[in-house]
Amino acid sequence: MPIADSWFEVYQVAPGVFAIYEPHQSEEVISYLIVGGKRAVLFDTGMGISDIKKVTAELTQLPIVVLNSHTHNDHVGDNWQFETIYGMDTGFTRENARGSRADAQAEIAADQICGQLPKGFDPKTYVTKPWKITAYTHDGDRIDLGGRSLEVIATPGHTPDAICLLDRANGLLFTGDTYYPATIWLYRPETDFQAYDASIRRLAALAPQIKTVLGAHNIPVAQPSVLPRLVVAFEAVRAGKVHATAAAPGQVIYKVDDFSFRMRAKESKP
């Protein structure tokens, strides 16, 4: 659907649900605006390279609550612009809320950008700005939007503070970086393989109740049948049944059918 800022593309993927896609940066991150009758949730705020708050203002006039699928820099870049931010009650979340520069700068290297950066954007000053957590959220919390309820599902693994959101009434599962249809990154120091395995099993158990899976990168919509298949693929890696391909120094990639996992080389068989 048309919007003013060409850095973003917006797709209505379900009634009252908008995927806000950033196609010009290699992460191809997707944030989601989920609109109820009284307020809306913005699930992630993107890179912070352009102004996602202006995009949301074109889509709704309702008050917005920000939740993050996790607090890696590509999902929290515009958190600072919003007044109401719910955060997971973890040390990882609190540390990342202080902001950072190094990860942000890496995102705008020459080989990471396709096309033009937004007018007025200054690469030299680009950082992930700090933000204030206004309330803590926990596994099992329900967020009432007015005629629409979202359930918080803690899915640690990719990061300690990773969550998914379940719109049970409409069969929508927002999976963040726990699942998306591209290479899943599981190589950073904060990644916990055991926790990730438990989290994807928990999601797979929900598959019969789900109509649509909505991940945080590349393509917004997947079928729920992907969830149990994800478990099988990851278990094959853990069991040592899959050959690793060298990636960046200290990293390997495992490919299983249409799944791909980027993992630490020394710990790729947890």
> What is the makeup of the main sheet?
7 strands, mixed
Mean pLDDT: 97
Q: CATH superfamily, called what?
A: Ribonuclease Z/Hydroxyacylglutathione hydrolase-like
List the helices and strands in order. EEEEHEHEHHEEEEEEHEHEEE
Strand order of the largest sheet: 1-2-3-4-5-6-7
Distance between the termini: 43 Å
CATH class: Alpha Beta
Protein model, in words:
The chain is α/β, with parallel strands linked by helices and 270 residues long. The chain has one domain (9-183, 192-224): Metallo-beta-lactamase, Chain A (4-Layer Sandwich). The chain has 6 helices and 16 strands. The chain has helices at 52-59, 73-76, 91-96, 102-106, 193-206, 226-238; strands at 9-14, 17-21, 30-35, 40-43, 64-67, 85-88, 135-137, 142-144, 149-154, 163-167, 172-176, 184-186, 212-215, 244-246, 251-256, 259-264. The protein has a 7-stranded mixed beta sheet with strand order 1-2-3-4-5-6-7, covered by helices on one side. Strands 8-9-10-11-13 form a 5-stranded mixed beta sheet, with no helix packed on it. β14 and β15 form a beta hairpin. α5 (193-206) runs antiparallel to α6 (226-238). The model has no long low-confidence stretch (mean pLDDT 97).
